[in-house]
Design the sequence.
């Protein structure tokens, strides 16, 4: 029997991870599929033949993508040529909406089924994108229950069957190397962000906050990093404050274990805030972008809160410090408020449990794979 060919488009690290987990589950259910696409090492390890590695065009913010417009146009042409020449049966787009919605438009012109996995965050900004989703996407699989209702109201076939992050976090806790901490000492997790650009903006105020917290509390700190580049960046920053001794462990590629071992955390806004909810930890959220990106964000972002835990909760359950408020003193003040008020500390844990419950039960990846298989064969 000739195998049907799927093309998976993952334009950034999170998409590569989610795509690889999805492919792994699809392979267990159906051995009559071949996989091609754009992604990274995770997808490649699952046997996906890559046309491009996402590292060649992964961007962030509002300004950076504009600088790669011509390159993106070239990539779009190459992908469409590949899809035609290789008789691709269906395409799965993962997140990365700026590029993926352009790709969806071109794919629909050649009458190939387009599924979208991990919705564009139209509820936060650029709601007009929903028109393109409705026109060029056959069905969308979303990660949050409120998204399913939003898309269905617009007449778009959408499915929420749980968030795979619940499985991902539980699996990482099981296989992650043990992180040793003194159980009698307050442990504070410091998460500057997975991207180097984020870490560069956030590290100094985070370390300033750590120094202030260390002066007041008997505490230690954990900083997770993904690779040597990030680790070297943290080490250089620590050398500059060596005259103020701070007990900080740098933990490589083991973020979930760091969250598990921490009593409270300071985190860069992003998916990691949901990981802290799943593990039921109190947090203070920070985020800082460049000046021009900030100006654009102020014009287009429509949500009151930026942290995913606050958005899903429908209210502010954890503090958010943004832009000029990302300072050592203000971070210290917010952490101290929580540590000095046991009721506030415990209430935040209860609110995190409620957010975690909204993400669904374990087994989401299997359910998502079942939905995708039913859609591509209908």
Sequence:
């Amino acid at each position: 029997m000739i195998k049907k060919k799927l093309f998976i488009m993952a334009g950034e690290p999170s998409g590569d991870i989610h795509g690889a987990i999805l492919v792994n589950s699809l392979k267990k259910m159906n051995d009559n599929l071949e996989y091609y696409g754009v992604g990274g090492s995770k997808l490649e390890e699952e046997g996906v033949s890559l046309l491009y590695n996402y590292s060649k065009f992964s961007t962030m913010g509002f300004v950076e993508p504009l600088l790669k417009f011509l390159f993106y146009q070239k990539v779009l042409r190459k992908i469409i040529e590949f899809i035609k020449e290789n008789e691709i049966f269906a395409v799965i787009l993962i997140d990365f909406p700026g590029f993926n919605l352009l790709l969806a438009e071109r794919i629909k012109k050649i009458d190939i089924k387009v599924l979208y996995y991990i919705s564009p965050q139209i509820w936060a900004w650029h709601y007009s994108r929903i028109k393109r989703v409705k026109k060029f996407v056959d069905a969308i699989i979303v990660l949050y229950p409120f998204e399913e209702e939003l898309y269905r109201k617009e007449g778009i076939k959408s499915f929420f069957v749980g968030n795979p992050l619940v499985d991902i976090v539980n699996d990482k806790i099981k296989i992650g190397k043990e992180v040793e901490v003194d159980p009698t000492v307050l442990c504070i997790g410091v998460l500057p962000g997975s991207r180097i650009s984020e870490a560069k903006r956030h590290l100094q105020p985070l370390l300033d906050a750590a120094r202030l917290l260390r002066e007041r509390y008997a505490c230690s700190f954990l900083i997770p990093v993904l690779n040597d580049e990030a680790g070297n960046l943290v080490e250089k920053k620590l050398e500059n404050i060596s005259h103020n001794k701070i007990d900080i462990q740098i933990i490589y590629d083991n973020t979930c274990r760091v969250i598990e071992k921490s009593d409270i955390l300071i985190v860069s806004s992003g998916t990691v805030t949901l990981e802290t909810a799943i593990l039921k930890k109190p947090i203070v959220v920070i985020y800082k972008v460049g000046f021009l990106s900030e100006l654009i964000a102020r014009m287009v972002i429509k949500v009151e809160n930026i942290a995913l835990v606050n958005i899903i909760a429908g209210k502010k359950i954890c503090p958010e410090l943004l832009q000029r408020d990302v300072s050592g003193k203000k971070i210290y003040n917010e952490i101290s408020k929580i540590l000095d008020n046991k009721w506030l500390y415990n209430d935040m844990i209860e609110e995190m449990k409620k957010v975690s419950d909204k993400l669904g039960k374990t087994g989401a990846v299997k359910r998502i794979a079942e939905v995708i298989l039913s859609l591509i064969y209908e």
